[in-house]
Specification:
globular, four-stranded antiparallel beta sheet, about 20% strand
């Protein structure tokens, strides 16, 4: 199979691949607004996963959140280069912005951006489900309403 230059670049580099540990609470890009009260000064790490390795695609996102802001995101993925490239792109785009349960771009737009063949569109839905699980967990447990960010 031939992959687009963008897919190859994100698949081959993937600097956001990995996990976040709860003990790792450094906040190099945090602002005063991110840590404005003692209750939110310590970022928390949340995890969400979707898919099944036995069926060929599995994705997990770890997100570090403080004050309803995604300070950092990491992913693990088992799947094709398209799956890994899109998961990397999502982690890259989400780091440093207000946390929401939807992807930074709809799956249909990601399919076009990464030139994902029609038969692989279900894999992008797995990426979306994993992100949604992590973000919903973070927004629910941090006292927010996850539905308000949809």
């Amino acid at each position: 199979m031939s992959y687009s230059e963008l897919t190859r670049r994100y698949f081959e580099s993937a600097p956001h691949a990995g996990v976040l540990l709860r003990e790792d609470v450094s906040m190099p890009d945090a602002t005063a607004a991110d840590v404005c009260t003692p209750r939110v000064c310590t970022p928390l790490v949340f995890r969400g996963a979707a898919g099944n390795r036995d069926r060929g695609t599995w994705v997990q996102f770890d997100i570090r959140v403080a004050a309803r802001r995604c300070l950092d995101a990491r992913f693990l993925a088992f799947g094709c280069p398209h799956t890994i490239a899109v998961a990397e792109w999502v982690a890259e785009q989400a780091s440093g912005i207000a946390l929401c349960t939807h992807l930074p771009e709809p799956c249909t737009a990601l399919a076009l951006r990464f030139e994902v063949p029609t038969e692989k569109l279900g894999r992008l839905l797995i990426v979306e489900d994993a992100w949604h699980a992590a973000a919903t967990s973070a927004l629910t447990l941090s006292g927010g309403d996850p539905m308000s960010s949809i």
